[in-house]
Amino acid sequence: MEQVQEIIRMLFTRDLKTSPLETAIFLIVVLGFFAFLAVTGVIRRRKEQKRIRNFLNDKWDSLCRIYQLNADEIALLEDISAYLKNPEKKYLLLVNYQAFHDSLHAYSREHTLDKQLLESITAKTKMGKTEALMEELPVQRRKSTRKAVQVTGYVAPIEHSDAHIEARIYDLSRGGCKMENPNKRFFQGDDIKISFKLGEKEYRNIPAEVVRTSSFGKVLHVSFGHV
Predict the structure, then answer these.
(1) Which of 41, 172, 175, 204 has a CA-to-CA distance to 12 between 20 and 30 Å?
(2) Alpha-carbon distance 205 to 77, whole Å?
(3) Which CATH number, 3.40.50.10490, 3.40.50.300, 3.30.450.40, 2.40.10.220, labels domain 147-224?
């Protein structure tokens, strides 16, 4: 940033008698510098995206091996994963019941399910009985009015059995919430689960995704569900 400021100062303090050729060369150098910054930024983002894709694929492959899924079962799950908000996070189908159920529900509205294949998957992954999964349940709403609250909640990575890390919740809606990021542990794109009590009603292990962070990583903006 200091280099950019120095270049800008040079640009506005140059002698007005400088020849057109020198001015043109100087402008080319300045534009080249900014082009270099833009290109390196794009390359950095692409490398990070590739790293995340590889991480998610490795996670998926590992879970498929753990549950000993065959080719047909994997193919069905990959088709179902198309109904996730982010299909690249297909590993969620094997670690979170709600993500599996909601994606399956959306898939079944447009496709005929192979119940025998589904039985085999649920038996291996312990994601629930086929009859319960086939029931008509509404998919979570994402858009609604946020309400300011001050309640104590709990959060954890989605792979954990229970949300257990204490965190304050600042606002809440049917679609998501804003909450404290304990020890700046979570980052944009992380999959988490949240528990909290509102009035007399208790909500446990709601699946969610970190949409973004703010206040220098101290606050999480969270979207409920993955479908």
Answers:
(1) 41
(2) 23
(3) 2.40.10.220
